[in-house]
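Q: What does the predicted 3D structure of Peptidyl-tRNA hydrolase look like?
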Amino acid sequence: MRLVVGLGNPGPKYERNRHNVGFMAVDEIVRRHSFSAWRSRFQGLTADGDIGGEKVLVLKPATYMNESGRAVGEALRFFKLAPKDVVVLYDELDLPPTKVRVKKGGGNGGHNGLRSIDAHIGTDYWRVRIGIGHPGDKTKVTGHVLGDFAKQEWPDFERLIEDISDRVDLLIAGRESDFMSKLSQNKQPAPKKEKAESAKDQADPAPAKEETPPDTGLAAQLKRWMSGDKN
């Protein structure tokens, strides 16, 4: 059995925050893989299902980010799991937007959710780091993290969340490198519409110019008369 944890803050106020990308990712996993309905359990919300033949419990702590470890620790002890059976998805400031890295163990990088989990179950669990980028100024970090995804960046994150859900079977199977590789392949940029239209314009010949019809009106007749042409 695997315990998959998405980190975030509960409530509509935080729903679209960059800090809640872990919640967004597990929501999509539950939806796409037809998990059970959410229910209150372990100081959070849980849903369960099967991915690649392995039983999976998804958990969204309802304790707010700083106390995430309480919910994770409670679920871990109930099912008698080891930290290595836990996968945590969360936002990472130190990765470019939509970049994903998977690792086991390590430091918390100042992330309050990880700091709490470390305190309750240790550090030997799997982390799926979802890059949200750094604002470039330490004084802007809180606003960046607790701010909603910008309109122009959301389509890339929406696609990434869908890709994570599609490829999570590789993660559950212990094929972390393949998981990251597939996500990277799916990020290849699509052809730009403007370029396609430009190519079409080049392929279509320019329309021929219309010839001006001969002037057969009164002015033309008068001109011919004055020139001596009586016809």
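A (community wiki): The structure tokens above were generated from the sequence. Residues 154-172 form the longest helix (19 residues). Residues 190-203, 205-218 have pLDDT under 50 and may be disordered.
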